[in-house]
Amino acid sequence: MAQAAENNGDADFVTLVSSEGKEFVVDRKIATTYSKTLGLMLDRSCLRFEGDSNKIHLSGLSSRVLEYVCKYFEHKRIYKNCPSVDIIPEFDVPLEHALDLLLAAHLLDC
Amino acid sequence: MYSGNLEMAVRDAKWRQLELVINNILNSKSVSLPNWLQSFESIYHLSVQEDEDFLRKKVIVTLERFVKQLSKGHLSSTSLETLLSTYSTLWCQYRENCNCMRPLLLYMDNLDVNGKTALGSFQKLELKAWQTELLQPMAADIVRLLISKILTNQRDEIDNTSIQIMREVGFSFERAFQISGGNQAYRENFEMPFLEGMSECYRKESSEIKVEELGAVKYVEKALAMIQANIDLTSRILNEGLVEEVKSAFVQHYFTDKKDWVLSECDQMVAEERNNELESLYKFLKYIPNYDFEELKSNFKNLVEKNLIASITNLKGQDVHMKFINNLLECHIKYRNMIREIFDDDNSFVTVLDKVFVRAMKKNTMKEANIPLTSAEMLARYCDSILREKDMPDNIKVFQELSYSFKTVFPYIYESDVFEKFYAQLMSGRLIQNSVRSMEPEEEMVKLLQQECGSEYAKKLTTMLTDNKLSSDLTNEFTQTNVIGIKFTIKVSTNAVWPMSDKNVLKFTPPNVIENVMHQFEKFYLRKHNDHKLTWMHHFSPCELWINIYEKRYIATMNTFLLAILLLFQDRDQISFNEVNTFLNTDENTLARHVAILVDSKFLKSDTKEVSAASTFKFNAGYKNKKTIVIIPAASKRVTLKENSKIIKTVEADRKGFLQTVIVRVMKKQKEMCHNDLIAEVISKTEGRFSASASMIKKEIESLIEREYLSRKPDNKNVYLYIA
């Protein structure tokens, strides 16, 4: 998931940068739909920006946690059109990261 | 201690970062993306990790500081003229910037668990700041300027940019006050002072117009134009409710206050039928609330009454009924159109028109106008004339026009039951004399009458029409299967349906020719309906006699009795009265009457001046007449008038029966009723048909008591009880 960042504006992808500097590239639409905070941050309807709007530094989140967040986005995307809840497999979260993940979820509102 | 300080330092740093971003946005400066994104983190930190009020208080202070700086800076330095436009520009900018800030504030709301319910959302803070720091202190000035700008625009040209500015100003009030203080604050701080100011200006301006110089007509036009312009303008600037209120204020000063003066010329306008001016006047008066055009209506009523009475007074002649109905219709159409075109088809005016017509049709008014017949009879005769008219080719058109005339006039007819009797009488006349031009209009008229007069009455008429048709079938069948020797048609009418009675039938011996046919037909008919009883109505039966004695052939039509008399002269020239009676075997008075008719018609000569039992009669050898076809009427004019009064008597008898039915029906429902209530109820039920007087009703009540349908209450003689 960690790939080279893209530096142009108006791309279909955004780069989420963790506190350690690791970059995660995610589809822009998925990120803004599933994380309300990211949606607000990337709201293009009212702001004049200097520079590109593709990199978001989330200094409060470690790479591990950010990785799980991206996995969660992916998980949601795959099963978003599922008719019933029973078919969806559980999203596993290892206990040691659970708390951090909880805080991340609060920050990102997702 | 140290950690406490560190925390505070972190907190302050985060706040400073956020504050910078907010201020940049408010000042329309651009923000770099990293800063923007970082502010989200700052918000997160501040809302989650500090106490709740910290962030809120800081944001409020920042907003207030900014707005205060605006008001102290830009607004205080502008002159009054440009104040409105400067304000409008600043407001628009502020709104736009706050919009850009929306994601931040929304995020704050999302994180803020408690605040939403207690202290209001973050998003409202921006408007609240605007209201308290800027708008409130300047409200009065701005309202005043707004008013004067509107009035200038109304007087002079409409300036589109001004309109935009004014709209923004109004909108700013609406948003700012409603968000922070709700509708009440908005109304108190903006709408009320605004309305008061506008109202005051209208009052002053309207009092400055020199109305007497202008004249009522011109003032009305001016006022109508002004209010239209006013509405056009205000609806582009203000919200709907406010537009209405401004309009009311305008109406109060320009319309209502001037109403009485404007109406001073009303009488003349109506009397002279100055239609254009009346149209404007009506539109003018329509704006005034709670006003129902009394003056206009009473003038209109007088106008219609005058013209209506004039058009129906002193009508005479054979066709008085045609003239009457046609004049009535003309008058009605004229004034109904007037209502439609000038008074906006206002129903209350139509009611006035109806009342005038109803009054005109009453017996007293007709008498005063020298009309010989009642309105009911007029209408019946009118229908009769039209249905006899043989010249018009188009049946449907005839019926449509008749239907229109009928539907217009019938509601005004006084005593509709008199109409019903006359119509039935005239229709039976038409059918018997074969003067019906076509069955279609007759049948359609019966359908129409069913709607207006009820199905019981219409059934009678339908039976008459059916009898007529059956009769022609009978005639065909009879003449085809029997040898008769003379041309013969028969009409069989059901008794009690047709308006003739079999009580006054002439009794005499008919001539042989006729008698043979009579017997043949009776045999034929009774074979078909052996339970029917036939009565021959000779006085209604026309006979055609071809007289070949003279140089010219004459064809004379007369009834069977007269025929019987004339045929006696086939083999002799002279007969005495008594001899005639031997042959005819009838009573002397009837015979005398009929012979007199023949003498009047010049076919017979009598040796005495008055026909009597001692007279002798001679056939007139020197009879000459310009016409070939001669009709000998069975009755003189005197008798027709007597017939009319007979109809009136039948009507009265019918009414008694009707009243009794109504009384019984009412009492059956109520079981118990006091005298006055019963009278009132019965009067209301007979209203359209005829006017029942209290004494008439009382008589019928007495009769019903005698026949034990009702009784009086033992302890209260004024109350009646229904006897089941």
Please explain how this structure is put together.
Helices cover 39% and strands 14% of the residues of chain A. Chain A is α+β, with helices and mostly antiparallel strands and 110 residues long. Chain A has one domain: Potassium Channel Kv1.1, Chain A (2-Layer Sandwich), CATH 3.30.710. A three-stranded mixed β-sheet of chain A has the order 2-1-4. In chain A, strand 1 and strand 2 form a beta hairpin. In chain A, helix 3 (63-78) packs across helix 4 (95-108). The longest helix of chain A is centred in the middle third of the chain and has 16 residues, at 63-78. Chain A is globular and about 35 Å long. Chain A starts with 12 loop residues before the first strand and ends with a helix. Residues 1-10 of chain A have low confidence and may be disordered. Chain B has 724 residues and is mainly α. Chain B is 70% helix and 5% strand. Chain B has helices at 2-26, 33-49, 52-77, 80-100, 102-111, 115-118, 123-155, 160-208, 211-214, 216-237, 240-255, 259-262, 266-271, 275-287, 294-312, 320-342, 347-360, 363-368, 375-388, 395-409, 416-432, 439-453, 455-481, 512-528, 560-567, 577-584, 588-600, 637-670, 675-685, 694-706; strands at 31-32, 542-547, 554-559, 574-576, 604-606, 616-619, 629-631, 672-674, 710-712, 719-722. In chain B, the strands form three sheets. A three-stranded mixed β-sheet of chain B has the order 2-3-7. In chain B, strands 4-6-5 form a three-stranded antiparallel β-sheet. In chain B, a hairpin with a 6-residue loop joins strand 2 and strand 3. Chain B is elongated, with a radius of gyration of 47 Å. The A-B interface holds A 36-37, 40-41, 43, 46-53, 55-60, 106-107, 109 and B 30-34, 36-38, 40-41, 44, 48, 99-104, 106-107, 110.
